[in-house]
Design goal:
Elements lengths: L22 E4 H4 E4 L14 E4 L17 E3 L9 E2 L4 E4 L8 E3 L6 E3 L3 E6 L6 H7 L3 H12 L8 H5 L2 E4 L5 H40 L22 E4 H4 E5 L9 E8 L1 H6 L9 E3 L15 E4 L1 E2 L8 E3 L9 E2 L3 E6 L7 H7 L3 H10 L1 E2 L3 E2 L2 H4 L3 E4 L3 H39 L4
Parallel strand pairs: 3-8, 13-18
Antiparallel strand pairs: 1-10, 2-9, 3-4, 5-8, 6-7, 6-9, 11-22, 12-19, 13-14, 15-17, 15-19, 16-21, 20-21
């Protein structure tokens, strides 16, 4: 346990137990933050040296995302703006202001303006230590205070260099920095590898869905389970002929929310393919009030979004024993006339495959915000297998992949929580 009024970590490696307390200093004494080059967008190339821009600093992640890099040939005084593997970068403005990421590619890259680079002023500093320190509560709290004081989301090099840094001060300081950074970096690498496996699994599912559902203009999928080969092709069906739409909550004011009966939020529908009723919010609904309550098998649909690609997201009510529950006013309900004709689990994938998503984008209307109407929604035509056993087989196959995805996602959250707890012990509190 840390001694009172002394900056000593709660958890310390054995070889540093007698090295005394840590010290405080301004970041600028040990690290300078350098800005990037003011590239002109019209001069970007299709090949050359990649440029790391603000868009390459992820909102949540340890490493620079280079998937959407642009390129440049050569710039004046280029060595001043080149970054190398292991460099720590920080977004200086925009939506990701204050977010940090390590450049982990082998090739050099250019640093764009509004992205800062931490540069050590002391050869005794172990650079990966600062890469971990910027994730501590101490750095994050100072960052929040600085951003809260400004009218716009941006931060300057001087701001960052004025932050308080806490660090080992003994003669063995560089070794302790290295031990801490290497421990946390190895955990970062494991988390990153797990995230890559998760992304590969998601890509596998995407490819599987493209083959298990008919392509545009087709009535039979590319691959079919052996027992259904040679059976009847799938049938095109307009949604308005097999189901009806119902609105969400209406006539509610702010005072009606917070207590009462459960209702499914917009976020639940947007983020999940199945509804978890334990996550519902509450709303007051009187006994004689006319509102549409949810039923088993209902498909819940988001009506609007900032982009056409994100409108019309769906979630299915797969719980047969649901409580009396309602839907938020920014979504609507699609309910089949014959709830026995289509397997409920199959609906999850029918309303998330490429054909459905393409159809929704076509009917989305708007300029700054895109909307779909219930009338246009019912005009959508989807191709559906008549054989319910085939529906069930497809749903079971994709559901097994979803379970693996959920397991990886749970593992990543557990690892990130473990790292957060470890950092709180490896770095002293102020």
């Amino acid at each position: 346990m840390a001694n009172d009024n002394k900056y000593i970590p709660a958890l310390r490696f054995p070889e540093f137990q007698n090295d005394g307390e840590w010290g405080l200093a301004s970041v600028g004494i040990y690290y300078k933050v350098q800005g990037g080059f003011a590239f002109k967008s019209g001069e970007f190339k299709d090949s050359g040296i990649p440029i790391v821009r603000i868009s390459n600093i992820p909102n949540d992640g340890n490493y620079v995302d280079t998937n959407n890099c642009v390129y440049y040939d050569r710039i004046p005084n280029e060595k001043s703006f080149l970054i190398a593997k292991g460099d720590l970068l920080i977004a200086m403005s925009g939506a990701t202001t204050g977010k940090t990421a390590v450049y982990n590619k082998d090739n050099e890259a250019y640093l764009n303006q509004r992205v800062g680079l931490f540069k050590s002023t002391n050869s005794q500093n172990y650079y990966p230590f600062i890469c971990q320190w910027v994730k501590t509560e101490l750095f994050q709290n100072q960052l929040k205070r600085t951003l809260a004081a400004g009218a716009q989301p941006n931060i300057s090099s001087k701001d960052i260099e004025s932050f308080t840094l806490i660090y080992p001060t003994s003669d063995n300081s560089s070794n302790e920095q290295k031990k801490i950074a290497d421990c946390l970096s190895s955990l970062d690498s494991y988390i990153d590898a797990t995230k890559r496996k998760l992304e590969l699994l998601k890509e596998h599912k995407k490819g599987l869905m493209q083959r298990l559902f008919p392509a545009k203009g087709k009535t039979s999928p590319e691959i079919r389970f052996p027992e259904f080969i040679g059976t009847k092709e799938w049938t095109p069906k307009q949604l308005g002929f097999i189901g009806e739409t119902f609105g969400g909550l209406s006539g509610k004011s702010a005072e009606d929310f917070g207590t009462g009966k459960p209702f499914v939020t917009y976020k639940q529908v947007f983020n999940s393919s199945e509804i978890d009723f334990s996550e519902c919010a509450l709303v007051q609904v009187s006994e004689n009030e006319v509102q549409n309550s949810l039923q088993y098998g209902d498909i819940l649909v988001t009506m609007s979004s900032e982009t056409p690609d994100e409108v019309g997201y769906t979630a299915v009510v797969t719980n047969k024993n649901i409580p009396e529950c309602y839907l938020n006013s920014f979504c609507f309900i699609y309910r089949l006339f014959d709830d026995e004709s289509i397997d409920t689990k199959f609906l999850i994938y029918l309303f998330s495959n490429d054909a459905y998503r393409a159809a929704v984008v076509r009917i989305a209307q708007g300029i700054t915000r895109f909307n779909i109407s219930k009338t246009k929604f019912k005009e959508i035509e989807l191709v559906i297998p008549e054989n319910k056993n085939e529906q069930i087989k497809i749903a079971e196959t994709l559901s097994s992949v979803d379970k693996q995805i959920a397991e990886y996602d749970k593992k990543i959250k557990a690892l990130e929580l473990h790292k957060k707890g470890l950092m709180q012990q490896l770095f002293p509190k102020l």
